[in-house]
Design brief:
Elements: E1 23-25, E2 31-33, H1 41-48, H2 94-110, H3 120-129, H4 155-166, E3 182-183, E4 188-189, H5 195-210, H6 216-232, H7 239-257, H8 267-271, H9 275-282
Domain DUF4218: 232-292
Pfam family, one: DUF4218
Protein name: DUF4218 domain-containing protein
Length: 293
């Protein structure tokens, strides 16, 4: 992103769509044909086998970088004879993925100062890259405030949500005292909110808190993400449900791209697409995530 000076992973979801959803309207009003193809190890290996490793050519980028691919080097793991045959080569930690996705959603929807993925720089990037007039700003504008948009709550709504979160009571050991995680004077969250608190809010409280605060299409996307993490984190997994999730989550993320600015989509939002496949392949996440329980 030119104005924010960071990396955006917007648009990566389309290649995971099923053949029934092969034509997609992007936020630049282009229709793009994509095919669903979960790359297997042999295919990836054939694409990276000629790339140098970081030890061989530490400062040279492979041919075609930024044009046909984004690989900078070949991982040394491909030297292992069994690496290309593994069904899961990089186990995604659901704990950190969920925490980062929650932070991006909550901070952006609540428009928390210094934490939101939205802002003047993000709006300028939106003006440059996307055809979304409702999010555009004058590129010469030098102020600090930008107009509220459809995915943000107002200041009174923000105060009501934080007050409601602070008032929640749970059994001992279920999560932290959420009243300590909220600063009502500054209308923001504090560093007392830990990863497991985000886990509870994301799966149990966020859809309820935002139900009357956001338009239906925005709330439904956030709620579907919440339900996705609920399904993935269940102690008993239903294979049929996970297969349906695997097919529907790319559509969900494409719908979210129609709402949020490109700056919202970092690597973590892209990783959501792979979670149903990993749950189908490797089983319940509580055997693989980084919680101690």
């Amino acid at each position: 992103m030119r104005a924010r000076k960071d990396v955006c992973c917007s648009g990566r979801r389309m290649r995971h769509l099923s053949s029934a959803s092969s034509v997609v309207e992007t936020d630049t009003n282009l229709f793009v044909k994509v095919k669903r193809n979960h790359d297997i190890g042999e295919e990836i290996y054939n694409r990276v086998r000629h790339f140098p490793t970081a030890m061989e050519e530490p400062n040279q980028e492979p041919y075609g970088y930024c044009d046909t691919h984004k690989w900078t080097k070949r991982s040394i793991f491909w030297e292992l004879p069994y690496w290309k045959d593994l069904l899961i080569r990089h186990n995604l930690d659901v704990m950190h993925t969920e925490k980062n996705v929650f932070d991006n959603i909550f901070n952006t929807v609540m428009d928390l100062k210094g934490k939101t993925k939205d802002g003047l720089a993000a709006r300028k990037d939106m003006t440059i890259w996307c055809d979304r007039p409702e999010l555009s700003v004058d590129l010469e504008y030098q102020g600090k405030e930008v107009p509220k948009v459809v995915y943000q709550v107002t200041e009174p709504q923000k105060a009501a949500i934080l007050k409601w979160l602070a008032s929640q009571k749970f059994p001992d050991g279920y999560c932290s005292n959420l009243s300590r995680c909220v600063d009502m004077n500054k209308l923001t969250t504090t560093t007392s909110m830990k990863t497991h608190d985000a886990h509870v809010i994301m799966q149990r409280l966020l859809p309820i808190a935002l139900k009357e605060m956001l338009p239906e299409h925005v709330w439904s996307c956030i709620t579907e993400i919440s339900l996705l993490f609920q399904s993935i984190c269940s102690s008993v997994l239903d294979a049929a449900s996970l297969r349906r999730l695997q097919e529907s989550v790319p559509i969900l993320m494409c719908n979210l791209e129609k709402i949020m600015p490109p700056s919202f989509f970092d690597t973590m939002e892209h990783l959501i697409i792979h979670l149903p496949y990993e749950a189908l392949t490797a089983g319940p996440v509580f055997y693989r995530w980084m919680y101690r329980f």
